[in-house]
Amino acid sequence: EHEDTGLLLQPLLEGQNYGAAAADGKQCPSVSVSRNSPAKRDYLVVAVLCFGNLINFIDWFIVPGILLDIQKYFRVSDGKTGLLQTVFTLCYMLAAPIFGYLGDRYNRKIILGAGIFFWSGVTLGSSFITESHYRIFVLSRGLVGIGSASYSTIAPTIIADLFEEGKRTTVLSIFYIFIPVGSGCGYMLAAGMAKSTGDWHWAFRVTPCMGGLALLLLILLIPHRIQRKTAAHRALSISGMIQRADEKPDVHRTAKTTWCQDVGSLAKNYSFVCSSLGLTAMAFVTGALGMWMPLFLYRAQVVQGIVPPCLQESCNSSNSLIFGGITIGTGILGIIAGAEAARRLRKINNKADPLICATSMFISALCLYIALMVAQMNILSTFIFIAFGELFLSVNWAVVTDILLYVVTPRRQSTAIALQILVSHLLGDAGSPYLIGVISNAIQAKNIPSLQWSFRSMQYSFIICAFVGVFGGGFFLLTCFYIEEDRKEAQR
């Protein structure tokens, strides 16, 4: 069922005061506002979306949290183990443009609900796969990625439709805080369930219950239709003029543009292109770290003699718990710091957002490189520099999304987010976990098998992440040259 984008009068007559303030900050006298403010309902919608985002990213990082157990259970090498996250991400990114197309044209609540139901069911089913069916387990992770794509593509556009630009940055920051929180909870939930039950399969039986609750809240609390903001809506809010019902706006004509036309228009938006490439570098680094870092820390501890090699059925999961805690803490702090820095610096520099992203990427790359170099000597220093590296990576999440939302016209935002997801994952975290695993295998194959080379192979593989981070910072610097012009074009 199509969401109604043709009647500009509807949100005004129903009291949905989206952007009903004039440019000078005063309320337009010709616009009547209902006494029942929609603010509470809007924040309730955001709360439900944040809960769904939490579950989404818990599911993403259950596998890395118990990676050593899964590797031992299925008896697979580093390369085949990395395939788990690569297949997940490939399916996620390939499904994203489809959901972007559907999200721009059909009812977003139905798409969100179907995605939650699908990925929760597949996650539950994957917990019953036996050790002789590794390929089916890999396939199940790909199907979970398809369900996740529906959520990540559409949920931010709903937030964009509910809030004006200044408040939108804050709300998006809250929404994106649940990326690191969910990721960290994924590590901790997986490790905790494996430790408490002695069976890693139970880690995949918790989030389906949470998904069922999210689906119920989605059905009960989110309106069936959420009015889309268009350029015409913004023109109304600025001028204070209500369009006559018999005057047909140009929305119908623009709604009929093809997906290829939308992509062609976005390809000419250099701010969108450069910031998406910067996000791709972020995704490459975070994908590799998220998949392999707990295992890398374990191998570093084995080499230092801090822990013995794992010969038991259930391995030591303390690194997953610690890394999960670091991910949560640095993620929350980084996203809040990034949003606050953007809010303050925008007042003095129109290019503040890409400059913040570039600086944080350069610092993060340096911290990760130092963490890798000191891993064999001092594990505490490794944890500290990893924390700083993740902190500066997290600064960018909400800022990059906000860049997209103000340099892309509203009716192309779902398509733009889907395209950004496709590119950033195709060239980023779709390949980085598998690439790190393959390089590690190649290094081990050229040397005598030992605990030392097991560690060094992963250490040398990870160095590529530091260099990719530097390239990401360079792309954000390029964004500075185009962002002002593209922002003005989107506002027009």
TrEMBL record:
Pfam family membership, one: MFS_1
Protein name as it appears in the record: SPNS3 protein
InterPro entries in alphabetical order: MFS, MFS_dom, MFS_spinster-like, MFS_trans_sf
Primary site of residence: membrane
Residue span(s) of domain Major facilitator superfamily (MFS) profile: 45-484
Membrane-spanning segments: 43-63, 83-103, 110-130, 136-159, 171-190, 202-222, 277-300, 320-342, 354-377, 383-405, 417-440, 460-483
Mode of membrane association: Multi-pass membrane protein
Keywords attached to this entry: Membrane, Transmembrane, Transmembrane helix, Transport
Taxonomic source organism: Erpornis zantholeuca
Subcellular location: Membrane
One GO MF term: transmembrane transporter activity
SUPFAM superfamilies assigned: MFS general substrate transporter
Entry GO CC: membrane
Family from the record: Belongs to the major facilitator superfamily. Spinster (TC 2.A.1.49) family.
